[in-house]
Amino acid sequence: MKKIIFYIIVALLIGGAVFYMTNKSFVLGRVGMSFTNKPVDAATTDSIGNVAKDGKRILVAYYSWGGNTRKLAQSIHRQVGGDIIEIRPVKPYPEGYKATVKVVRQELDSGTLPEINVAKVNMKDYDTILVGYPIWYQREPLVVEKFLRSIDTTGKTILPFATSGGSPIESSVTTISKAAPKAKLGDALLANDKGLVNPWLKKYNLIK
Ligand SMILES: Cc1cc2nc3c(=O)[nH]c(=O)nc-3n(C[C@H](O)[C@H](O)[C@H](O)COP(=O)(O)O)c2cc1C
Description:
CATH superfamily of the largest domain: Flavodoxin domain
Distance between the termini: 64 Å
CATH class of the largest domain: Alpha Beta
Largest sheet: 6 strands, parallel
Number of helices: 8
Bound molecules: flavin mononucleotide
Number of strands: 8
């Protein structure tokens, strides 16, 4: 009898581990991370024409599919001040995770950058652009590449920050540096651990 119970427990543990590995995003979604695309109106997310603290000229520009990066970008913006804009695909991604993964894979394979909707800002107003995004297929989403290619980043300091399901941020730094070759690229922050945000902002004198 004990042996049977032992085997049942082992089977449940293995089954649980296999389920977790194959449905990691689903499980993470259940424990609080967002896994549904619910676009938010620009009127509630964008804020332009602000003077940042200490006269700094800062723009926070981000893309978020499920809301994790939006929360992070908004929290960074509350701390550093300046302007904040959300990058939006003209054609929204599906609401569901699996459908989005499929669409994104096709976009990456086709190599065409999706059209974006983003508030018109004058890049001359900024010295520092904090660029936020979720890691998608190990890199920044194509809408972020599209944004960077559509603005003049010459001489600007770009500080990339991201959230992910566990992947590192490094590959996105390579693709971002190609999309903004004349920018000064600072250290990129993978902010899955929120405790890393303030030391990173302090390093660039964006907060005291
Ligand atoms: C299309 C797609 C691709 C993803 N690719 C990766 C990946 O390669 N590595 C990873 O760690 N997480 C990946 N994720 C998970 C997201 O990076 C993670 O959930 C992020 O926090 C989502 O941020 P958001 O809520 O701002 O969209 C992917 C999610 C989606 C929707």
